[in-house]
Structure formats: C-alpha cells, structure tokens
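Fold it.
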Amino acid sequence: MASNTFSLSIATISSPAALFSNTKTSVACQLPHERTLSSSLMATRTSIYKNTSTTRPTSLRNGSRGFTCSASASASSALPSALLFDCDGVLVDTEKDGHRISFNDTFKERELGVTWDVDLYGELLKIGGGKERMTAYFNKTGWPEKAPKSEEERKDFIASLHKRKTELFMVLIEKKLLPLRPGVGKLIDQALDKGVKVAVCSTSNEKAVSAIVSCLLGPERAGKIKIFAGDVVPRKKPDPAIYVLAASTLGVDPSSCVVVEDSAIGLAAAKAAGMKCIITKSGYTADEDFLNADAVFDCIGDPPEEQFDFAFCGSLLEKQYVS
C-alpha cells in the first residue's frame, strides 16, 4: 500500500491589506464580552475588525445559533449582480464520504494498492482538481507499478482513473446518499426570486457538478443555474480563472459578485478575482485560515437555525464584517 505521508503548502494569492475597509461601520454586536453598538442592521451579530493585520475572524459556533445575519430593507438596497457557489463542501459536504470513497473504489478496481485515508485526503484537498490531486500524489509517493512510464501516457492513465471515479461518484449522487447542506436551497431561491444570476464554480468534473445541481437542487432550479466546472479553465483554484470566467460569461462586474466558499484555496480564488466571499466551513476546512474572508459561518442554515440570508449577501457590497 502506498505511503500516507503527504504534506502540502499553498501560497495565498490575495493580499489581506486590500480586503478590509478601515471605515467605521455601526452594527449590532451582541456576542459575549463584545460591545453592543446601535445599528440599522436588524438582528445582526458581528465582530468588527479595526486592526486587520492582527485580528482573525471569529467563527460562529453551534452554541451561538439562534439569530440570523440579515439587513433590513431600509439599511441596504444593494443586490449582488451574481451569487456564485463552490460545489463540494458548499452545496454538499461531498469530500470525505463521496469523492474520497469514489477515488478509493477506483484504485481498488484497478488494483493499484493505494488507499487515501481521511487525514491524507484532507491534505490532498489543498490541491484543486481531482486529476491534479492524483498526479501530485503519485509524483510525491511514487507511481503504481501498473502505471505507464511516459508523461503523455500517464496523463491518459490519470484521465481514465478520474473518469471512472466520476462515474462512481455520480451513482452516489443519483441515489441521493449525500444531502444538500442546510440553507443552500433557501439562499438560491432568495437570489433567483430577486432576479439575481446564480452559478456554481467548481474544480470538480462538470458531469459530477451537473449531477449534484440537477439531482439535489431539482430541475427547476437547475435550469436557472449556470455551471462552470472542471477543465473549462486551464488553472484550478486558488487561481481566480474560474471566477473571472464566470463574471465575464454572465456579463457582470466581479466587484458586484458574492461567492460562497468553504476552503482557503476557494477563498483565495474569489478574492483574487475581486469578489466578496462568505465562508461556510465544511468537515475538512473548519481549521483553515480565513483571515481574508468577508464573513465566516458554520453553514448557511435553515430556520430556526438560519445563520445568514440573501439580504446579508447584499449588505457585504457596502460593509465588511465577520460573524
């Protein structure tokens, strides 16, 4: 069995200095031990960053639920031009019990003697894209005996593994064994009801992303959602190419877009594209550094445990704060 020793590091693309405004913003701040300030934002609980070089975002923990970060109609009339979602970890928490299992089943079918355990796969997720993930892993630990020797043949070998992995993953999705994360459908409906463009921007295979959108969000929503996925761009996250393409194709200004991501590489891609970014932590990303995020939550959430709504997304275009 291949070694599970694998470590990675990624460079942060975007600069923290440009991500937070020094302008004073009045918000309701009712977390324990924090000052309470008057505000036109209703039922909002946030932490203010006055020194962004040293202060890190405060995560919203399960024990802090029971309110919704929102903006009253009078507080902000701003609407994002587009609401963009990552797929894996944002729409569905697919990685540990979806993609990882499908990779391992593929390796077993091909008798490669490779297994990615939970911790190892968490490290591999720092690499955007399944084909890129496998290539980096084999380059680091050694290629299986059954793998070809030439670089071109290895590309075809990786592509065939990824194709089979996608087929196995789609079976899981079609059986609806992996549910939508709380609040995803609600937030998409709120955006569509306002006439805001919605898209999914992912490094995953386009067929896999389309299966998630159509099977789990339903055909009516799916017909209104644009998908940008897989090899539609030559460079994967943390490169901003997927978000730059989305903005260009949708005909919107990147600065008027709000992105929902779950990972540090996704955050880096969104910010490098000049977009606002909300983090909804997933199983693998809870401990990642989200200093540059415009807001950080455990999830979107459905009532009565809703953590933010579409009005909050619009308010980010005018103010910057983190719950």
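Residues 131 and 158 are 6 Å apart (CA to CA).
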